[in-house]
Amino acid sequence: MALISRITVSRLVETNQVLPALSQFVFRRNISAESTDLKGILANKIPKQQEKVRNFRKAHGNTKVGEVTVDMMYGGMRGIKGLVCETSVLDQDEGIRFRGYSIPECQKLLPKAKGGEEPLPEGLFWLLMTGDIPSKAQVDAISKEWAKRAELPPHVVTMLNNFPAQQIHPMSQLSAAVTALNTESKFAQAYAQGTKKALYWEYVFEDAMDLIAKLPVIAATIYRNTYQDGKGIGAIDTTKDWSANFTSMLGYDSNEFTELMRLYLTIHSDHEGGNVSAHTVHLVGSALSDPYLSFAAGMNGLAGPLHGLANQEVLVFLTKMKQELGDDIPDAKVKEYVQKTLKSGQVIPGYGHAVLRKTDPRYTCQREFAQKHLPNDPMFKLVSQVYKVVPPVLMETGKVKNPWPNVDAHSGVLLQYYGMKEMNYYTVLFGVSRALGVLASLVWDRALGLPIERPKSLSTEGLMKAVLKG
């Protein structure tokens, strides 16, 4: 008989019963790095990381890692080092690194679908969770697991189908549906039963897996109800990967579009912990709200025009330029149009970033995809032209720290090319992708026992007094 693991013993001592969601652990041996059991691998990794963090805090708990200025406090906390995010780090010169791997490295190393060239999002999720590049077998196991968990409860289906979809923004539908899904939360159920804090991460993991599995079904239902005929999305195919099932439910059968979705869902997944959606999920989760409520809150932040809505604004900008200037616009006319836009007090959407000081690698990989699959598309040509013209114009102003394009400067044009012209829906796609990063982070938040987030605030008068006194 297999030895009962230490973690199982603690459960048995705690409750005299094993909750169904955790019954797989009762007779678990130590598993190998090649195992396809993601939760089991995490169960081996988490105690080591917990010990590492405990020792680090014990040795360096009072070490200062930065200073806070008045400008930082009034300027959206830009540059304040105040969060821990295990899954990714954004370097101002290199761009995003997922567990230390750049986007080009992820494109090269992460497993791909048969005949495909872009990484499977399941592989990135494994990487975000574990820090390890997964095997194809491990990625296939995640695909099958998500397909198995994808079915929505009847009340959520009824809710989605009863929405007056033409009147409610797709992001509002997404947020409401995810909130309603919290009836399925294993974490909420376990917390109500008084489970120990050391076990929180396991229930959050279960919720994260369930939610990620169900999001494409929710998102596809919203798309069909809002923009198509409202007919059913069809059944999940357990032989397909997560992205392929998603595009099929959306009603697209192009292999190229499926490849684009694999790339899109991978690169939009995570951008360290300080952006609005990621920070919101972390903040709400720190109050021990379940992952459904936490993620829904993050989606309400993502819906904002300064966050996930930006790619839509890029398309509006480009479309308006074409309407005013026509086709085959000379560079000089583009430059004149950009300068006119800036002089009117507007920004050039898709250009600049709060942290990055170079072209966003997420923009670059989408540009490479376009160069391969749609090199002669008029909108892609305009995007390329703007890429050439805008940075020098922004640098001439002397006011812009980063004149280079970010991810939003390109993604909408690709979606338009393959027929998805409904711009209000683009943020829903962003949300489906962002779930991979923020929910992986939420698992680690609970694994490390991070407490409720509660920074100190001051009134302007109090801050003035503190500064003058200092």
TrEMBL record:
<feature type="active site">
    <location>
        <position position="408"/>
    </location>
</feature>
<dbReference type="GO" id="GO:0005975">
    <property type="term" value="P:carbohydrate metabolic process"/>
</dbReference>
<dbReference type="InterPro" id="IPR016143">
    <property type="entry name" value="Citrate_synth-like_sm_a-sub"/>
</dbReference>
<dbReference type="GO" id="GO:0005759">
    <property type="term" value="C:mitochondrial matrix"/>
</dbReference>
<dbReference type="GO" id="GO:0006101">
    <property type="term" value="P:citrate metabolic process"/>
</dbReference>
<dbReference type="InterPro" id="IPR002020">
    <property type="entry name" value="Citrate_synthase"/>
</dbReference>
<dbReference type="InterPro" id="IPR019810">
    <property type="entry name" value="Citrate_synthase_AS"/>
</dbReference>
<comment type="similarity">
    <text>Belongs to the citrate synthase family.</text>
</comment>
<dbReference type="InterPro" id="IPR016142">
    <property type="entry name" value="Citrate_synth-like_lrg_a-sub"/>
</dbReference>
<dbReference type="InterPro" id="IPR036969">
    <property type="entry name" value="Citrate_synthase_sf"/>
</dbReference>
<feature type="active site">
    <location>
        <position position="307"/>
    </location>
</feature>
<dbReference type="GO" id="GO:0036440">
    <property type="term" value="F:citrate synthase activity"/>
</dbReference>
<dbReference type="InterPro" id="IPR010109">
    <property type="entry name" value="Citrate_synthase_euk"/>
</dbReference>
<dbReference type="GO" id="GO:0006099">
    <property type="term" value="P:tricarboxylic acid cycle"/>
</dbReference>
<keyword id="KW-0808">Transferase</keyword>
<comment type="subunit">
    <text>Homodimer.</text>
</comment>
<comment type="pathway">
    <text>Carbohydrate metabolism; tricarboxylic acid cycle; isocitrate from oxaloacetate: step 1/2.</text>
</comment>
<feature type="active site">
    <location>
        <position position="353"/>
    </location>
</feature>
<dbReference type="Pfam" id="PF00285">
    <property type="entry name" value="Citrate_synt"/>
</dbReference>
<protein>
    <recommendedName>
        <fullName>Citrate synthase</fullName>
    </recommendedName>
</protein>
<keyword id="KW-0816">Tricarboxylic acid cycle</keyword>
